[in-house]
């Protein structure tokens, strides 16, 4: 007889807020990727062209954790016309010792949003200059808000300039940041203007054409590029990528999915170049920023290791709080 | 607000028994594989070497079905020492139109066992001779029992000869078949003896070395090979495979995982040979058995299409019976 804990989105929002503990948990996952025998197979992707839908399944096993997640992320892009969100999804949490299902996290993508924002904070913590009062945010959606909040947990921020293709969205973002985050925020007229004084820039758009060109870079800038998590997405021009110190979450993914993929295709970076991963920088196995004048870019495509890390944190807190609904699973198959 | 239906193993055993409807549902999935734009990505596999564990994730979308399954199949081979079964697992059922999770089938592998047995019956229905009174069963585990029961739903069987490496298991199987299935069953002294008079043979072992040699074949024999669902498994000698009319469930899988994989490695079959799939035979797109003297072999590795088909049947019946536990999933992520 086994039992499974079910947790809904509202419970998970309470259990796993965006805080320093979440950022530290994700940082530990990056270190594990660089230093331990993490098992992280390529993403499983199912396409349902008749319904403009796709599903990604990600998983990873981290030797240091007692459980691992299998994350199912559907994207069904006709859903808004049905009054439903395009993105949702859930995570299964399995015991790393027995394979038994321990929990089903019905988070509708919430935990992914949190671990993605936390990864951005980890990148800034290790690659940005110590002082980063000026921040550029490119894109004005939910992840842009979370990225800024996560950054403010690891760096003092004074002035934010936001740019988005949709000016009304940028205005709403700016008003919210001024009113709720205690930071001065205004709307930039262009990506170039947004970046002009920034020590940190965060890109969070689904753009298919580069938004940041080599001419937008200046000494000391750090860019965290969050948006490119699929082949067709591209936020950083190939020449800009080649002009910076390039760091990524997982080279095997960014070679195929990330900004790196476009730079290799354009010939500005080599397919066989040695690529530094963020976990190697944290573990002091590779250099990140070496001076206050370096330009650094961190290319984040999202990894199953982050999913396993955030799911393990959620389960640990749910058990401590005795949260969730328990479902008995009948006798195992003889 | 969405809700999810949870079904446990006991409920699923009641809802989806091994019957003709299950066999027909799996047959339809084979036809869909051959005739429709089924999306079935390669299996996702995660290895956890520290715990002697592995997890396979399979999925497929069939255009004819309103939902699709994502199946998680863990195998943790140290579990018996903990008093737990090695194999368990569950299926998620998602809407093919919206990607929303509709059900979690906590079946501990039961539905996989049923769809696997049903596939064996489909293979015999389309590839065995019309009259098959004599049947050989190689292996004496749970799947051997289910295979025989499934076969008896589509063919009249008079006499079964069972062979297993463990003679005590073969004796238990024989006693059960005699007592509960109304069929005469005895234990064969060897694989060769078991097959000598058989019109149908079913192999259901985890063997890593061939059990059936070319010398064991005789005109009119049909073999359903169930056991080879991983690279290292092999029940049919490469020379035997090459001497028969070869049909499989999915060529892209059997080239890597199935009996075919070993025959290609041994050089008895060509890597680029045109391979007939079972669905093509059912859809009359390719020839299966052409005479009562053909020797046919059906190489079944198990497909995500079968999982989606059996999961859709389970959900349809659960809804009709208002079975299961409903779990509200909170507000979707804004």
Automatic annotation (TrEMBL), chains A, B:
GO terms for molecular function: ornithine cyclodeaminase activity. GO terms for cellular component: cytoplasm. The keyword Lyase applies. Its EC number is 4.3.1.12. It comes from the Bacteria. Keywords: Lyase. Pfam families: OCD_Mu_crystall. It is an enzyme of class 4 (lyase). The keyword Lyase applies. InterPro entries: Ectoine_EutC (IPR014334), NAD(P)-bd_dom_sf (IPR036291), ODC_Mu_crystall (IPR003462), ODC_N (IPR023401). Gene3D superfamilies: NAD(P)-binding Rossmann-like Domain, ornithine cyclodeaminase, domain 1. NCBIfam families: ectoine_eutC, PRK08291.1. This is Cyclodeaminase.
